[in-house]
């Protein structure tokens, strides 16, 4: 997965670290919040800069400030991490709610009586799943389903 120039060198952890440093204006403050050693945090941000071939943060005596490239990356990174979070939430939600196709076989005598309540209950309980009802003689239902 990458663009025309090859694979993307950036990983999500590096973006998370970069955002924290940028927001807090300090590697040491970000390291505390992220629960990571400050040298390891600095190394990850440096690797990000190296991989992107740009300087993202200007270090000074009072902390760090974003360069123009850093501002652009910051804006995109926030959006990327929000999107990843929404994807995770969506996947979790779909995992909790069954989906797919369920086939129920009913003999003609029961089909007329049970079909409507079964469909209504099914739609309420499993909105992402599809229900197929097959009506036939009991001897044939086992083969069909």
Please explain how this structure is put together.
The protein is of the alpha+beta class and 145 residues long. The protein folds into 2 domains: 2-94, Arc Repressor Mutant, subunit A, CATH 1.10.10; 97-144, no CATH class. The protein has helices at residues 12-24, 27-34, 38-52, 68-96, 108-125, 138-144, and strands spanning 2-3, 6-7, 57-60, 63-66, 100-106, 129-135. The strands form 3 sheets. A two-stranded antiparallel sheet has the order 1-2. Strand 3 and strand 4 (63-66) form a beta hairpin. It is rod-shaped, with a radius of gyration of 27 Å. The two termini are 41 Å apart. The mean pLDDT is 84.
Question: What is the compact description of this entry?
Answer:
The chain is of the alpha+beta class. 62% of the residues lie in helices and 18% in strands.
């Amino acid at each position: 997965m990458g663009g025309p120039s090859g694979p993307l060198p950036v990983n999500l952890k590096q973006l998370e670290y970069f955002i924290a440093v940028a927001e807090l204006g300090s590697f040491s403050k970000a390291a505390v919040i992220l629960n990571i050693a400050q040298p390891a945090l600095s190394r990850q941000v440096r690797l990000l800069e190296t991989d992107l071939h740009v300087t993202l943060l200007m270090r000074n005596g009072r902390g760090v400030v974003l360069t123009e490239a850093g501002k652009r990356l910051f804006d995109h990174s926030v959006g990327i991490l929000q999107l990843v979070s929404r994807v995770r939430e969506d996947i979790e939600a779909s995992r909790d709610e069954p989906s797919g196709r369920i086939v129920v076989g009913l003999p003609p005598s029961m089909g007329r009586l049970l079909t409507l309540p079964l469909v209504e209950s099914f739609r309420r309980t499993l909105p992402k799943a599809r229900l197929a009802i097959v009506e036939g003689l009991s001897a044939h239902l086992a083969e069909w389903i």
